[in-house]
Fold:
Amino acid sequence: MSFYPFVVAAVLFIAGLYGVVTSRNYVHLAVCLTVMQSSTYITLLSIGYVHHGTAPIFKSPLRTPRVDPIVQSLTLTDVVVSVVVLALILALAIQTHRRAGTVDPDQMTEMHG
Amino acid sequence: MTAGAPGTAVPIRRRDDHRAGPDDRPRQSTGGRQLRVAVFGAAAVVLGGFLLWALTGLPSFGDFHGEYGRLLNRVGVAQRRASNVVGAIVFDYRGFDTLGEEFILFSSVMGVAFILRGSLRIKDQSPLDPGGNDSLRVVGTLGAPVVLLLGLWLAAYGYVTPGGGFQGGVAVASAGALLWVSTTYRDYHRLTPPRLFDAIEGFGASAYVLIGLVGLGLSGAYLANFLPLGTPGTLASAGSIGLLNWAAALEVGAANFLLFREFFQEYIQTFPGVEQE
Structure:
């Protein structure tokens, strides 16, 4: 059972990647990419977990084990990057729909100067 | 046939001769898709092998002994007087990274605005402004102030309890989204003047930089603490971490609000009913 969270992360990553590869819609692609990125949150947070550890929030000196705070702050960065990427992809999808009339990458075979 | 068959479509056909014709384009694309999935399948086997290898090399769940994290858990509260060690890491130990993170967000707002701005001139239809129906209006008007308060609360105590400028900022921005749901775009525009939010975003981002510079001037290092540390667990604690936290809250809140706003504006202009109007 000690590897279970990593399996969840791996499954999310592969599922998201499969979605990105077979995507027929840029919005769908953005969602798949978000699924892929959520696997990184799970990886980071589960790496930082310590047996019977609680949140690294306390006033007095430590007596009980606490989970790793570094990976939590890295996850925060990860989430911000994910939001930014999502916003840019969705904006590009809108603009693509305006210019090409479709958000299916396969339909956009021709280039317009 | 070659002797100039009078047809207007001739030049177009000729140009398409060496490319995929319009009618066989779908067939070609499904072929490309099958090839792509096949290549992905082969690559996925290799990737899966590496992934499995990497996963077996990870410390077993719960057995991680990262020295850096353990050290900060031990000394963080005593050094920075911030009861939320994650907050202390985000705004102090790794404060410089957070500066970069803020500017990632800042530049993405500009990027989205640039990408979407060009399109506004393409369609010169009068935007349809449907507004919400009654149930949406009830949920929105009841929800927006609650979410706004929740966001401000999350942001205010970021270095004391779970939360912080980033989380609180996003919650504040989603209050703006609820406001949009509950009213017409015209009222939304009037209630939330974009210039104000541009100013707040700029102020938040520059405040973070300036607080860092004040630390450089008074304490000898960029982003170093220059305020009395106070007692952990109270609002008056953690020195300049509090200021940085609130600056980040302003920046993140306004940036996310402006991101949402760009998309709302876009939605209003491309609403399915626009053409009928």
In short: The CA atoms of residues 96 and 103 of chain A lie 6 Å apart.
